[in-house]
Amino acid sequence: MTSQIPTPDRRPPRRSLLPLAAIGLIALGGAAAFAWAAGWMGSSGRLTSQGFVDTIEATGADHPGFRRAHSKGVCVSGNFQGTADGRALSSARAFSQPAVPVLGRMSIGGGDPHGADAAARVRSMALLIRTDDGQQWRMAMNSFPFFGAPTLEAFLEQTRAGIPDPATGKPDPAKMAAFLARYPQARRFQAWAKSAPLSDSWANTAYNGVHTFYFINAAGERQPVRWSMRPQAPFVEMDKAQREQASADYLAEELDRRLATGPLRWDMVVTLPDAGDALDDPSQPWPEARRQVTVGTLSLEQAQPQATGPCRDVNFDPLILPTGVAASDDPILAARSGVYAQSFFRREREIASGKAAGATSDEVSP
Fold first, then answer.
1. Catalytic site residues?
2. Is 183 labelled a binding residue?
């Protein structure tokens, strides 16, 4: 990792232990990408963003200054180029401005900033696209194609099931089994986690927004969409033996090697629903036969360690949206802003108070 990435606007806007616990932690890691920033929760059950982050923290060791989930990652930068089809669907400036600057972060699921890259089931991409009119579009995407819990309450139950039992130091498999028994959406996620092949690179992985948003065009027409970043690099599976032999920082090192030979590209593809498709439940995937439109191309050109990189102090809140893009009524999406903000506040406070040397030193792996 070499070149310096431009400084961003920093305004706030374990591996598995037992099979069932492993699924829970996978979901937690990915879902933390969701819950991560948002502070939500209703009043009746006193479900708060603070309480949710407390629960996430209880699932593992303390790592001051790091994100509470998806703790390990690298900063990346490049640009985004929209297409005519994108401009037809949305008036967002990102689709009309040539080569919009992008700051991003590639990461793995889980709350261990020293975890083994290749062992992570979930991989993630977060982006901040800043257009020349001063607007920002922030995204948080994951390699899984749908969410593992249908409601905020279910996701909290899942997270609690991942808290280690003081008697064993490991999550109680019975609690995760009870959660899986209650929610078919979680079992579907479990089946995906067990069967989907793992790629051998961040660069050839597809990243999915999973939530529904609305694109709004110049005529004021609203179109529900779900977006994905689909790699132009061909998919290559990494088998179990390769993962076991890989270095702890395998993905970061492999990304550096690829970037040394040129930019890495993903097509931004939006899927349009048919009548009856779920708009407010990210645990319900839309059929693959739905119409899809390529609305832009993301090119990444540089990477930098997060400890010293400009993405470290960015909150990739998925509800920071430009004109031409609007959120749906998905309650999990709405929740993310508060949880993300709570997590951001805690880690920035730790850094500011000098209690997070590991998160701010490049002695720590990416």
1. 70
2. no
